[in-house]
Design goal:
- With 107 residues, this protein is mainly β.
- The longest helix is centred in the first third of the chain and has 5 residues.
Length: 107
Amino acid sequence: GYKYSISGTESIGGVKCTVIDMNTDVSPDEMATSDVFKIRLLINTATNEVKQWIVFEKNGNRHKFKINSYTSNVTLGDAMFEYDCKKYPNVPVTDLTENEDFGFCPE
């Protein structure tokens, strides 16, 4: 889990953002197995949309993810959410809806 706090505001490309720091809230044993200790979210104050997030690792690495634009009310067909085994032969498949173990697409 994470403990979060609002750390202030910051401007990204002229867009005012609220900065939210999420610090890990885990036991020392769990922390020993994780590389990440903090995630920083930058939220557009006018639209409440995520503008950017930064993942902080214990070794000093930082990974920055930016969202340049949003497209809302997109119509997606059912095929977008269906897995086509024929396109990916010999790829292991776990069907969580059926509670089955790993398997492969039927031939």
